[in-house]
Amino acid sequence: MGYITISEYAILINTTVAAITANHSSTYVDGVIGRVSDMVETYCLGTLFESTVMTDERHTAYVRGRRPQAAKLLIQLNHTPVTEVSTVEYRVGNTDTTMSTTNLDYDPISGIINLWWYGPIWRTQEQWTILVSYTAGYTTVPDNVKEAVALLTREWIDADDRVGGGTAGIISEYRIGNYMEKYAPGSVERGNIGLGTVDSLRAQDLLRKYRRPGVR
């Protein structure tokens, strides 16, 4: 599901739903919005724009510190912003032990959890499997994220029309960071997301603040 509806898309690009669906089916436009929304999430390095419950997310962590009381583990959750950490477990063999989260030390923006308070336990081995269940994501999609999705959707549809002569579905992927799959011949290969037009460059500016810091 995309971060905006067709109605919101029409408002954000200053047109009407009727004008959009006169040239493209609502199914096609919804599909582009959905794919662009997924790529925005990837571009933002795991920042979620809908509240999502993550269950038993698995992490491999290594002990830092040599003194028993100083030994600690640092893990970084895959998604942010973190709004609640419900359970943290460590695994030994086939047994999972639930840890107290009363004094849990974590950064909701980076998703980094410092498991320092179990120092004496961490000292017993160097590598641990940690399972975390938590909730992450914005409760409502921020307005500037919606605008970015609309701009990238317009760019995608315009490129489909130009390259395909009005036949939708030509573009295969956008650029995301340093990764880019092959798409329409002659497309501009600049910018970190999208096809490098004014629309995608503006979208980058809108999304930059949501690219979370400290990602491993």
Description:
The chain has 216 residues and is of the alpha+beta class. The protein has 6 helices and 10 strands, in the order αααββββββαβαβββα. Strands 1-7-3-4 form a 4-stranded antiparallel sheet, with no helix packed on it. A 3-stranded antiparallel sheet has the order 2-6-5, with no helix packed on it. Helix 1 (6-12) crosses helix 5, helix 3 (26-43) packs across helix 5 (143-164) and helix 5 packs antiparallel against helix 6. It is elongated and about 65 Å long.
Core attributes:
elongated, alpha+beta, three-stranded antiparallel β-sheet
Q: Helical proportion?
A: 25-40%
* Sheet with the most strands: spatial strand order: 1-7-3-4
Distance between the termini: 27 Å
Please give the number of β-strands: 10
Largest sheet: 4 strands, antiparallel
Proportion of residues in extended strands: 15-25%
From the spread of the alpha carbons, the general shape counts as elongated
CA-atom Rg in angstroms: 22 Å
Return residue spans where pLDDT drops below 50 for at least 5 consecutive residues: 166-170, 175-191
Tally of alpha and pi helices: 6
Q: What's the mean pLDDT score?
A: 81
Broad structural category: alpha+beta
Q: Would you list the SSEs in sequence order as H and E?
A: HHHEEEEEEHEHEEEH
